[in-house]
Amino acid sequence: MPTAVASEPDTQVPARPVPAPPARRRTADGRWGGVFLAPWLLGLVLLTLGPMAASLYFSFTDFGLLGSPHWVGGKNYAELLTDDPTYLQSIKVTLVYVGLSVPLKLAIALLVAMVLNTKLRGLSFYRAVFYLPSLLGASVAVAIMWRQLFTGDGVVNRFLAVLGIDAPSWVSNPDYSIYTLVALAAWQFGTPMLIFLAGLQQIPRTLLEAASVDGAGTVSRFFRVTLPLLTPILFFNLVMQVIGSFQAFSQAYVVGDGQGGPAESTLVYSLYLYKAAFVEFKMGYASAIAWVFLLGIAALTAVNFLFSRYWVFYDDEH
Amino acid sequence: MATHISRRRVLQLGGLALGSGVLAACGGSGTGSGKAATIRVAYDGNAERTKQVGLALEKIQSKLDGVRIQSEFGGDNAFFTKVRTQIASGDGPDIFLANTIDLGNYVKSNAALDLSKYLPDTIKTGDWDQQLLKGAQVDGKQYSIGTGVNSFCLLYDKPAFDKAGVTKLDPAWTWGDFAGIAAEVSKANARKPYGTSDAGRDLQTFQVYIRGNGAELFTPDGAIGFTEEHVAEFWNLWKRLRDTGAAVPAEVTAAADFNNNNLVKRKAAMNFDFSNRILSNQTLAGRPLGSTTYPQGDRPGAYIRPSRVWAVYGRSKNPEKAAQVLDGLVNDPDAAMLIRTQLGVPNNPKNLAAVEAAATSDQAREFTHLKLVEQHQTPLANVVFPAGGGDVSGAFQTYADKVAFGKLSVSEAARALIADATKALKG
């Protein structure tokens, strides 16, 4: 792989026109570079930075929807953090969701990746099959199917009934509904699995063989060789999954019937944000919710990076 | 076919949303000067209703000059989500169907136009019962027009009632009578079905309940009109019904929804519903259903009401033309014969007579029921909830669920609800 990337500029050099004097060439290049960048820059400014700035401004106003916004200072933030039990509930639900789904998903992803890293017959077929649920990702269809599976008289309970187990209605009971969402997230382990798989294939065989020769069994080879070498990959997956899970929306929207129900048990953060904005039309308040969210995820990611130095092993720092 | 159109529409909207920022920067491009003004009409319902309303709109378009009507429709929750999102992005439909619970929020956000100046000339309401117009007002202004008339209607499973030997229901029955019958029916059928579905999470049923004791949900100026004690009394009733097996357990309630309700699903023998839904419930249930009034307190709590309301988008480019289309929806005789009672019985007296005369015996049940409620009601001046009323309705459900699932005690939940409702109505 690395050689292919490195060779690319080389092949292009002969095709270039005769170079102009260096100084002029640089400005001309810059200009053209600017032209080619323009669509992306325009997109960034108009579609990302612009709305972000607007949302930051709105978060300090009482902006409803069509009326004009009035400056209220930090009132939205104050109310959010001190006088909104539903908001606290949404944080609780989200933390449970992230705290359970991320480790579970990563564990399954790593396990399946290890299995698929062996010399199995029809390996590429299995890889595709295991990746499939992730392609369907946040799709509404999958969430609807999930709701059907775990409902009171759904497939899961019919199966359990055959085994003589009288199970509750998973999605309709606030004690269990969040776990159906966790299970759905864990089932979609394909993306981290692929990344793990790529990482596993980078681990030098020689190291594993040397460990075997030294008498290491499967378990200690995994914990002493594979896992340490895999930590950068694990770290990458962890960061991406944590950020992704915090933003979970469509699954909770569908399974919780658009309300985060039953009894607010699936009211994840982004769903509460959505309800504030598009159900109650409190755009200013919703903007404040969004900004606290952004800061929260940023802080958590920073903590993640901070701690990474204690457990992530990079091969190049001896 | 229908899905095809709506998907294209969604793509168009996506494109519009992306493009609108750029377009806005270009300054006012000339719209509205063309020949035919496009009026977008958004409505929801089951397949039958959306089809009939669609046909009625085609009829209305053929009678109006310079108007092209574009239908947008969906079912239930998805519909409201779509309309709200469109409105939030400044691209709301010119005319949209709202319910009496949520309209107040649209009004507060200036998303609904005051239609007073189009009455009674453009929207010809001269010969209507003026009380019907009043019912759709907010703060004394005509922000909406009722689609038709309906009222509260308790539907019950006749075979399950027969099994319990309950054959005759007194329309002046009390909540105590109701609880007794629910227990009997549940017992006689060994909880298959349970005696009643759980209406403890429904703010409108609560409204009927407290009106029977002389209280109101909201004061005339849009503040909270009920107390913690009212809520606790109501929730204790439902808690008792659930605990004794007269009403369905909380889990069963959480798995049901408005259309696929527990009466239809054969889990409950009674369901709190509305008169214009007798037929559709009957069809879905697949067994004979009876209908009667909601139970009452010292006096009846029910009232005759606009089934749903039509509103014109506050930023419509063609409010005049939209008002003409709205007039067609509520007054045009051909449209009335197509929509029939899908949105309640017509407001317009001539159309009402024509639709009633053409009703089959099944369809006539709705008219019969409304006449029954007329004799057992306490009229209500302002049916549309004030701004924030929709949020109260949502909070009512949430706290009722928390009680039902044992997460909060009745008194804790009632106190929290009052706090939330007071905040929602004030803010």
Structural commentary:
The complex is a heterodimer of chains A (318) and B (427). Chain A has 318 residues and is an all-alpha fold. Chain A has two domains: 1-58, no CATH class; 76-311, MetI-like fold, CATH 1.10.3720. In chain A, 72% of the residues lie in helices and 0% in strands. Chain A is built from 14 helices and no strands. In chain B, helix 9 (228-243) packs across helix 17 (410-426) and helix 16 (389-404) runs antiparallel to helix 17 (410-426). Chain B is 47% helix and 11% strand. In chain B, strands 2-1-3-10-4 form a five-stranded mixed sheet.
Distance between the termini of chain A: 24 Å
Domains of chain A, number: 2
- The helix count of chain B comes to 17
Could you name the CATH homologous superfamily of the largest domain in chain B?
A: Periplasmic binding protein-like II
Strand content of chain A: under 5%
Q: What gross morphology of chain A would you assign?
A: globular
Summary, kept brief:
Chain A has helices spanning 2-12, 22-58, 75-82, 85-116, 123-136, 140-150, 155-162, 177-187, 190-202, 205-213, 218-246, 250-255, 269-279, 283-311. Chain A has 318 residues and is mostly helical.
Observed structural traits:
heterodimer, A: 318 residues, mainly alpha, disordered N terminus, B: 427 residues, alpha+beta, D-Maltodextrin-Binding Protein, domain 2, five-stranded mixed sheet, globular
SSE layout:
The complex is a heterodimer of chains A (318) and B (427).
Chain A: H1 2-12, H2 22-58, H3 75-82, H4 85-116, H5 123-136, H6 140-150, H7 155-162, H8 177-187, H9 190-202, H10 205-213, H11 218-246, H12 250-255, H13 269-279, H14 283-311
Helix pairs in contact in A: 2-14, 4-8, 4-9, 4-11, 5-9, 9-11, 10-11, 11-14, 13-14
Chain B: H1 2-25, E1 37-44, H2 47-63, E2 67-74, H3 76-88, E3 95-98, H4 103-108, H5 130-135, E4 145-146, E5 149-150, E6 152-157, H6 158-163, H7 175-188, H8 203-211, H9 228-243, H10 250-254, E7 270-274, H11 278-285, E8 289-292, E9 305-306, E10 309-312, H12 319-331, H13 333-339, H14 349-357, H15 361-375, H16 389-404, H17 410-426
Parallel strand pairs in B: 1-2, 1-3
Antiparallel strand pairs in B: 3-10, 4-10, 5-9, 6-7, 6-8
Helix pairs in contact in B: 2-13, 9-17, 16-17
